[in-house]
Amino acid sequence: MKKNTKWVVLFLLPGVALFAFVFLSTLVTLFVTSFTDWAVGKDMTFVGLKNYIYLFTEDENFIQSVKNTIIWIVLQSVFHVFIGVVVALLISKKKWYSSAMRTIFFVPNIISSAALGILFLCIMNPQFGLVNNIITKLTGSTFSHNWFMDPKTAFVSVTLTWLPYAGLVTILVLAEMSSISEDVYEAAMIDGATKLQTDIYIVLPLMRNIIGTSTVLAATSMLQKLDIIMMTTSGGPGNKTMNMPMYLYKTVFTNNNYGLANAQGVLLILLGAVVLVFIRKMYKMDKED
After folding, report:
1. What is the distance between the alpha carbons of residues 281 and 219, in angstroms, rounded to a whole number?
2. Separation between Cα atoms, residue 43 and residue 33, nearest integer Å
3. What φ, ψ does residue 192 adopt, rounded to 5°?
4. Does 223 have pLDDT greater than 70?
5. Is the CB of residue 243 less than 8 Å from the CB of residue 254?
6. Strand partners, 37
7. From CA 65, how far away is CA 241, in angstroms rounded?
């Protein structure tokens, strides 16, 4: 037994050392420097909770970025996952449209976010964009609208660049559905259950853990969303589409304020931890079926 313990420790040691060097030391540095006034070209000075107090009491851009991030997390956790699960249920029926639907639905997921941002900039361009041209054809009068730069439509336009494309959720749910025994479907059919009743009362409860995992991935992806916002609006107009990663980026590279940015980084990590715990509790992912 003691020999086994030694081997376990020996094999775990490289992974633990790598984690401590790459992540733990970085997190400690981030946390400590969040209490400092730190900028390139200036000496680092300890300021206590000043950065955190400023963020919550004086910085309207940060407050707006937190609101937008939370709204996008909720939308992504609810609608994005819902779309992915529904598409997985439709594809699993193996109808004539399943193969084409699978291919079309997965295409946005193999395009980089930066390229996707440029693509949507072209589609919604006020001069030659496809959306404005379709509206012009339907109404019969010239229509020109800057979807990303109008404060009334910027948030919705940015949201539509990622919300409906739930290919990853569909892949995960389809993989889990393939593990359900055919006996389960046959038993449901013998009991007189329709296909819709089978999906609602049998398949979906069995998918609880993978749907929970998909929700975690979808929600936490909003804590990393930067490239597509940078390519489309850069957080504007004003701060209408500002999220926490985008504002952190601007605090570092535009305002040269590393201390304040690190305080935002700490709060971003805490928000991610709260979201993770909440979703795991909601889906009861720690409990066995």
Report:
1. 14
2. 12
3. 90, 15
4. yes
5. no
6. 45
7. 8
Quickly list DSSP for 35-78: TEE--TTS--EE-TTHHHHHHHHT-HHHHHHHHHHHHHHHHIII
Tell me how far apart the alpha carbons of residues 202 and 181 are, in angstroms, rounded to a whole number: 12
- Residues 265 and 31: their CA atoms lie apart, in Å, by 8
Which residues does 20 contact at the CB level (< 8 Å), separation at least 6? Answer: none
Instruction: List the beta strands (DSSP E) in the chain.
Output: 36-37, 45-46
Neighbouring CB atoms inside 10 A of 165's CB total: 20
235 to 122, 130, 198: CA distances (angstroms) = 18, 23, 44
Query: pLDDT tens digits, residue range 19-56?
Result: 888 888 999 999 999 999 999 888 899 999 999 999 99
CB-CB contact of 40 with 57 (8 Å): no
**226, 251 Cβ separation under 8 angstroms:** no
Three-class DSSP category at 234: coil
> What is the value of pTM for the model shown?
0.89
Most confident of 11-20, 173-182, 258-267: 258-267
Distances (CA, A) of 84 to 70, 75, 100, 215, 275: 20, 13, 16, 10, 20
Inter-residue contact 173 to 217 (CB < 8 Å): no
Cβ-in-10-Å burial (0-12, 13-18, 19+) of 138 comes to exposed
